[in-house]
Design a protein that fits this description.
67% helix; homodimer; elongated; 171 residues; 2 strands; two-stranded antiparallel sheet
Chain lengths: 171, 171
């Protein structure tokens, strides 16, 4: 039978996996044809390097999240998982920050640089990007909870597995 | 006398403190008057929310970095420093990612959104922003090294301070 602690960890990993997968799919399928005065153009994520970075980062973490589901809790690989959780959380934070910064310019524009907001012309595209960012945000929150939980159990097991513990049961 | 390990940690903290301080000063003083056709404008960091976020994040970490210099290595606050190092490294990564994403648009533009590159008109401003980003990058690298070093010494002290270690010296 699966222990409750392991079940919680599995549940968090499933949520994180689902969220990063959703972020990839929503962002990668976001495109809309818009027009600006006489100019017609197609807005798609791949035209913006920050959004491409977001998709690639979330895709990498999705693959990792899927593989991490199958590592048993007693495996020596758990220590590696702690380190990788940390690295991939940083990757997710970096990618969502970059995507958010460009999305903010897309929504509000930047008058001093002469960049006009585009969300008025391609509202559906903007909503889809917002959806992807929300999914990415859920993934980050889940990974931070997972990270805190893994550190907690890791420290506990480290303190519990001292080599002399069995030799001095009275202490 | 200060121990070599403590000296290394202090040196890394000094570099990190200097780098975040430099990032704040360089970005906060970046402004240049440019003209685009007949239009004259002033480019400054405070017009771009991502750059403001970069300055605020680096300023917060500068204050923290200064305070962390004075925490003795035996203090119980060291555990808090480990947690805060982690949180502030994530903050720095987030802020530099956002700033980089917008700086990239400033340098290359985004043709599909109709955003023209501005670095041709305000080259000095762009160079200064690049300098701030480089300083921010050095700060992040230093904090990651510090983090790895703190985790290493923290785990070592944790394993060394097990209550039964002295009671069974033969093992």
């Amino acid at each position: 039978m699966v222990k409750p602690k392991r079940l919680l960890s599995l549940l968090l990993r499933l949520i994180a996996f689902g969220a990063t997968l959703a972020a990839v799919i929503i962002m990668a399928t976001s495109h809309e044809k818009g027009s600006f005065f006489a100019l017609s153009y197609e807005a798609k994520y791949s035209d913006t390097p920050a959004f491409k970075y977001f998709v690639i980062a979330n895709a990498i973490v999705t693959v990792y999240g899927f593989l991490a589901l199958f590592i048993p809790s007693e495996s020596p690989l758990r220590r590696l998982v702690l380190a990788l959780d940390l690295v991939f959380t940083m990757l997710l934070i970096s990618s969502i920050s970059a995507a958010l910064a460009v999305a903010q310019v897309g929504k509000k524009g930047n008058s001093s640089a002469g960049w006009l907001p585009v969300c008025g012309q391609v509202a559906k595209y903007c909503n889809q990007v917002t959806g992807a960012l929300v999914a990415g945000f859920i993934a980050i929150i889940t990974y931070i909870i997972l990270l805190l939980y893994t550190i907690y159990t890791f420290l506990n097991s480290l303190l519990g597995k001292t080599p002399c513990r069995l030799s001095s049961p009275g202490i």
